[in-house]
């Protein structure tokens, strides 16, 4: 085996090890989200997460620096997937009216399907006002969601500057949080009410 072959082999082994570590972090994060979305940030310890994940607390510490690091990873992982799903709708060839209707309907469906996970996001966002350790992940996620709205406005043939996108994002976010809370409190009609309200708001501002 030549020196170059050895270097390539070592590089491949390092890449495989990195990929394995990434998969394990994602697996642990998926288990952690199960605990966190049920109990919330304040009431969930690393010991709780370890118990639900079937691993030792030391294993979590091996992959994550602390609870803040783990929660940040979990929220990023979910929100990246959520933004990607919404982005896939924005990138369709639907006519503007159909695109808006489909976009809003998917948000309403997400209230039904992922209410507890969205609750975790709002929990972490609130914690960021008290704990600077969460500021980076909150700013990063909100920037990604505002960028999504920029792309939506662009597809609708509307001015897609940052200020306009931010204003529309705030309207969507406020309505989403309000109806999410109603749904979590037992109002099964909240997602439909969200869809109706936001459709009217879109008609007024777009």
TrEMBL record:
Keywords: DNA-binding. Residues 22-82 form the HTH tetR-type domain. Pfam families: TetR_N. Residues 45-64 bind DNA. GO terms for molecular function: DNA-binding transcription factor activity; transcription cis-regulatory region binding. InterPro entries: DNA-bd_HTH_TetR-type_CS, Homeodomain-like_sf, HTH-type_TetR-like_transc_reg, HTH_TetR. This is TetR/AcrR family transcriptional regulator. It comes from Pseudosulfitobacter pseudonitzschiae.
């Amino acid at each position: 085996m030549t020196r170059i072959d050895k270097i390539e082999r070592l590089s491949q082994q390092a890449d495989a090890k990195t990929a394995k570590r990434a998969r394990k972090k994602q697996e642990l994060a998926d288990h952690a989200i199960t605990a966190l979305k049920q109990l919330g940030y304040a009431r969930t310890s690393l010991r709780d997460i370890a118990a639900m994940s079937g691993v030792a607390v030391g294993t979590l510490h091996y992959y994550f620096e602390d609870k803040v690091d783990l929660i940040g990873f979990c929220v990023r992982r979910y929100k990246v997937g959520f933004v990607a799903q919404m982005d896939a709708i924005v990138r369709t060839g639907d006519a503007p009216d159909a695109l808006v209707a489909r976009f809003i309907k998917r948000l309403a469906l997400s209230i039904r399907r992922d209410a507890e996970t969205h609750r975790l996001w709002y929990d972490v966002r609130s914690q960021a006002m008290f704990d600077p350790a969460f500021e980076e992940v909150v700013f990063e996620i909100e920037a990604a969601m505002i960028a999504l709205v920029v792309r939506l406005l662009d597809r609708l043939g509307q001015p897609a500057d940052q200020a306009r996108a931010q204003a529309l994002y705030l309207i969507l976010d406020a309505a989403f949080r309000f109806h999410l809370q109603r749904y979590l409190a037992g109002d099964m009609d909240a997602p439909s009410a969200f869809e109706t309200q936001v459709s009217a708001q879109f008609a007024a501002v777009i």
